[in-house]
Amino acid sequence: MTTATLTVPIIAAPARAARVRALPTLAARRLALSVRSPRAIAVPLMAPVLFALVVAPALADGVSSPAQRPLYMTFFCVATCGLLIPLNCMFFGLGVLVDKQHGAMRELLVAPIRRASIVFGNLAAAAIVTALQLVVLLLASVFRGAHYVVSDRLFWFVAGAFLLIAVTYGIAEVLVTRLTSPEEYSGVIPVVAIVPFFFAGSLYPITSLPTWLADIAKMLPLTHALALFRYGLTAHGAQALHNIWGMSNATEMAALSLGVLALYATLTTAGAVRLFTKSGTS
Question: Burial code of 63-96, b = ≥16 C-beta within 10 A, e = fewer?
């Protein structure tokens, strides 16, 4: 008697491969929705150009002497990085909310991909556009007289910027799953993206704040991000880290602030993935 053997094809590997390929596809989709025309590309770049070429020089002329003008320009433009990142990420979230209600988000949920891939794809797209804004801001500010120190400490700026993007976009995705309308979401944007800017050591050291408010500022992710920005791009940026930690070793303080940002990024991103996976587009 001959025994017939039935071979069952394995389909798990192709499914896993599809999931791996989903992330760049989803990121490209979100980018296409956000920057679908030359005007849509130019508009996000207008804010950093305006800050670098108009706002920062005007403030520098008004509050500093000619000798201190480049120093203040640098100080203010680094602070502006801490405003552009949250604003851009929050507005990206607004686009996701509109897509959730009126776009093709529902169709994505039946595709052979993990729902978490949608969140990470949106995060990747937000990171790309935000990085472009930061590059334009820094280059334009150099044209107007700002001076940055480019060294191995640039790592702290890049890492801090990426983690702040992850933190803020994680918050944006959480709000997308919790809020029901673009109008309601728009009302939250100033609270998340603008209010912390005035307490995080952006325009003045946190030591200038009342003690209780300075203690609160030290818990804000933006405070740690700005300290890393100053340490990574300026010659005397370690002072911002010292205002937070009160230590003498700048590298250790930078590592601690990076760890705080990494913790916030992990919590907000995990929360966003969990909520999106549970709620979908409901």
Answer: ebeeeebbbbbbbbbbbbbbbbbbbbbbbbbbbb
